[in-house]
């Protein structure tokens, strides 16, 4: 499938700031499930830093924007040729071993409720991962606005509501609790309904013999040709496609517009 | 005075006295004994006061090794030097360099292919689930393949040819300013000693450090590299050392706010405009280096620094993630690293360590608790520790229960008989226990100045050399051939 992405993020500062530094994971890496046809990132008045693929196999690039400025726009446009690999991440070059993805983070620390949810009977790791993903989908109702960017997996469980980020973090916490390496994945998704989010997130769980396999509890499926994978991390914050800091006071107002569409060939 | 006997947990232990052996003065101390015997009675206290005055005037008052305590307290300086022969040092030097090389080879390996883990020589869990493992540097090969550029190796001596490594410090070991200042002050106060004895100088350290840092400039640096020392600021207990080393090397001492990232490089604000920085000797912890990569609330670091580092625009000394190599649980595998990467046998021994996680070890430890030191695997600063020979029966019983409940959380080591060196005390001169921290430099070459920091337990019979518990420092001599 040919997928076109147009992703515009705008930060507006209440007062001019002296400068902004950002670290981007906004360029998809090539693997069997996705081939980059065309991709570009622009930052208004930004100077690009060195670009490299990190140990997780994700493209990272730093940007600096000189001030004074009161607004920045980051625009991602591109086209990716995707294929359905049944959720299996194949042909993705990375050097961090799966064991490193067992470490928990404050946002993915399992509490009693998550441990109870993880107590599913499944001898086979793949069966276990599917069962956990289904259990998370059952336990957390999709409801935008019920949570925020810093909501932890345990808080999500208590609320019983959340968005894709929350589903992914609860699944990661449960999988790691079962001794399975797991990570958070940020990307895009081609959506047919209003419900799903175009700027999307899901989880990957490491399965012996298969490697990394994606699970998307929010949509009760494994990633297929509708998904574009940007980058991964131990939790949502660690995997954030954009991390940035401004030199100056005040919180920026954020505006995000994402359009993901399939292109007729 | 030979081989002082001390009652130790019901057993008598002999300590190696570095000055006297079998009632005779050991050769390296011959001239010092003479000096000590002929020192006029009043001169000693006069000199001691002079030394303290000098230390206070130069402002060297920080606590060594980040032990906490009052940062403005003066660490007692003992004027009686500790002496090694050239031959003794030659062996130590080979052992220290060997260890520093192996530790760096280990770091390069675990952040690339992890051969040592694949070969089953160290458990994956210890490496990849280690708190200090930093996935941000995985797959990145730092210049010259060096992660730890200054390796501080803590040693104790238990016999004429018997040394043990207590721990490795691969991040940013402190205390080297004491090594340099102790020498400086001894030379000022007792120039005659430096004429009577042929003592190898240590003052090349700052040149070697500068050369080491310059040798790891990144590939993108095509000129004489600009080196800076990055300090958390003057409130840090080792700030004196940061500014001292910057002065000696002739490089800028900067704080996070003095640096900024633009484009592919890191820049320093100067009165003449921005200046590109190539090598950063950082004395701040990994977690605070860059809020975009590590702790988002850090104000000590430089936003965007890690992206510049990882794309080869600047060198960080030591590299983030170097701490995996000096972890307490990883320590037991250092001899294995030496065999695995260098194909050599370790020259310096580890302290024998029993892992309570192993059944046989656990049985041994439980059997001999009154004579062992038991530590928590992830404990530090002496917390959660049992010193068998100094513990009461109740304390031992309580610890026995704790170990039984969670054996994997404990390791045990023998109580080491640390060597003694003559030390000025109220009654005159008496033997006191010492340890040693040399500072090995790793860049294009592996270098070591002949000397280190000797810490001394000033309390009689004490084996604790920490400055927070009454420890002092001494000048450390290595004699020429």
State the end-to-end CA separation of chain B: 28 Å
Order of adjacent strands in the largest pleated sheet of chain B: 5-25-24-21-20
Q: What about the largest sheet of chain B?
A: 5 strands, mixed
Broad shape of chain B: globular
User: How large is the radius of gyration of chain A?
Assistant: 18 Å
The third-level CATH topology of the largest domain in chain A is C8orf32 fold
Strand content of chain B: 15-25%
Average predicted local confidence, pLDDT of chain A? 94
Q: Helix tally of chain B?
A: 14
Question: What is the class of the largest domain in chain A in the CATH system?
Answer: Alpha Beta
Beta-strand percent range of chain A? 35-45%
Counting structural domains of chain B, the number is 3
| Number of E-state strands of chain A | 12
N- and C-termini, Cα separation of chain A: 9 Å
Can you tell me about this structure?
The complex is a heterodimer of chains A (about 260) and B (about 475). Chain A has helices at about 110-115, 125-140, 155-160, 165-175, and strands spanning about 1-25, 35-45, 45-55, 60-80, 140, 160, 180-190, 200-205, 210-215, 225-235, 240-245, 255-260. By secondary structure, chain A is of the alpha+beta class. Chain A folds into two domains: about 1-80 and about 240-260, Immunoglobulin-like (Sandwich), CATH 2.60.40; about 80-235, C8orf32 fold (Roll). In chain A, strands 1, 2, 3, 4, 11 and 12 form a six-stranded antiparallel β-sheet that branches. Chain A has a four-stranded antiparallel β-sheet with strand order 9-8-7-10. In chain A, α3 links the parallel β5 and β6 (about 160). Chain A is globular. Chain B has helices at about 30-40, 40-60, 85-110, 115-120, 125-130, 175-190, 190-195, 205-215, 240-250, 305-310, 330, 335-340, 360-365, 395-405; strands at about 5-10, 10-15, 20, 25, 75-85, 150-160, 160-170, 225-230, 250-255, 260, 265-270, 275, 280, 315, 350, 355, 370-375, 385, 410-415, 420-425, 430-435, 440, 445-450, 455, 470-480. In chain B, strands 5-25-24-21-20 form a five-stranded mixed β-sheet. In chain B, strands 15-7-6-22-23 form a five-stranded mixed β-sheet. A four-stranded parallel β-sheet of chain B has the order 9-8-13-14. In chain B, α2 (about 40-60) packs across α6 and α3 (about 85-110) packs across α12. The interface of A and B includes residues 23, 51 and 61 of A.
